[in-house]
Amino acid sequence: MDAENPQVSDAIRIVDVLAHPLSQTLPKPTVTSWGVYSQVSIVLVEIRTDAGIIGVGETLARFSPRAYVELIETSLKPRLVGQDARNIGGLWQSMRRSLSGRAGGMLIEAIAGVDIALWDILGKATGQPIAKLLGGTGRDRIDVYAAAVNWVDDAEADRELERYIGEGFPRIKVKMSNPVRDACRRIERLRKRAGDDIDLCVDANWAYTLDEAVEVGRALAANGYFWFEEPLPPENEQGYEELRKRCDVPLAAGESNFTTDQAQRLVANRTLSILQPDVARAGGISETRRMADYAGVHGVSYAPHIGMSGILCETASVHLAAALPNFRVMECECDMSPFKRDLADLAPGCVRQKNGTLDVPTGPGLGIEIDWDAVRRLRIQ
Ligand SMILES: [Mg+2]
């Protein structure tokens, strides 16, 4: 032991890793080009240490959450127990080696939950919020946009738009799908209803062929939308490059990427203007920071994806947003689902969305307190 600096020399040994599969019914279904989501699952990762510190993280596990539990308990836990929780980079590499092929898929999502929990432990051990550990930029609030106006009929879309404007959001995302003629009509209609002072963007969730995306993209550019998100399937990188040349709207994507190398091509040639990794998918805080930094080097903005995830994903994203210089704007799910409303208490004084901003928690680690009764209640039996 180093008597002068015990905090640095003392290891904080991991004694247990628990994975809690949770499920919630959304207060209002999310309607996208993929279909209707009314039930969503995640896995909450709990890491216990010999110092009594407990770290928590979240794995994006929309489907088959029990499979993630198996992966965490059988492949990752044996590589973690007995190790120093502060050796986050080394543990990440060790976990990654439990897959001999290219990095991606459920393993990286499982690692994401562990990685967030390790950063939470590091923050609690040092008494620092994660944003400060990441370098910090002095932001204490971050800009968010309302997500989202669903792909529903015109009257309901109008109501959702007006509700978000009424809640003070200056930036609003609209879900878009087929047919293209309806999409182009909706783009113009919502612009007229919102007026020119509200910023609008669109998420298509891979709805289009290249030719369809060109048509929709031109309508978006003509109506001053600030981005066109995932118009094409993520594998169609050549399609994204072609689309960028054929319409003027900025392209956004990245929630479907697992690691930095998957974002490399479209960031390096600046096809994308905005990169949107999801911290609960893209290997946690460690890999998401790497991905956002890579984007920053190429003049591409970072805009965290949250989707229907829980409060741990949202809070980890807030810390990244507060710390990374190329942060642009973060997604904010407007309906407070049980994963956001019940799972944790925000730190005292931390205000939820106000005029399109969120507070950055100032407590150690993630800066939130998990409600373990809610975990038990939401747990899949
Ligand atoms: Mg999206």
UniProtKB/TrEMBL annotation:
Any matching Pfam family: MR_MLE_C
UniProt keyword tRNA-binding, yes or no: no
Superkingdom to which the source organism belongs: Bacteria
This protein's UniProt keywords: Lyase
Matches recorded under InterPro entries: DgoD-like, Enolase-like_C_sf, Enolase-like_N, Enolase_C-like, Mandel_Rmase/mucon_lact_enz_CS, Mandelate_racemase_C, Mandelate_racemase_N_dom
Molecular functions (GO terms): lyase activity; magnesium ion binding
Biological processes per GO annotation: amino acid catabolic process
Domain Mandelate racemase/muconate lactonizing enzyme C-terminal: 154-250
PROSITE patterns: MR_MLE_1
CDD domains: MR_like
Family matches, as PANTHER family: D-GALACTONATE DEHYDRATASE, D-GALACTONATE DEHYDRATASE-RELATED
Full protein name: Mandelate racemase/muconate lactonizing enzyme family protein
Source organism (scientific name): Oryzicola mucosus
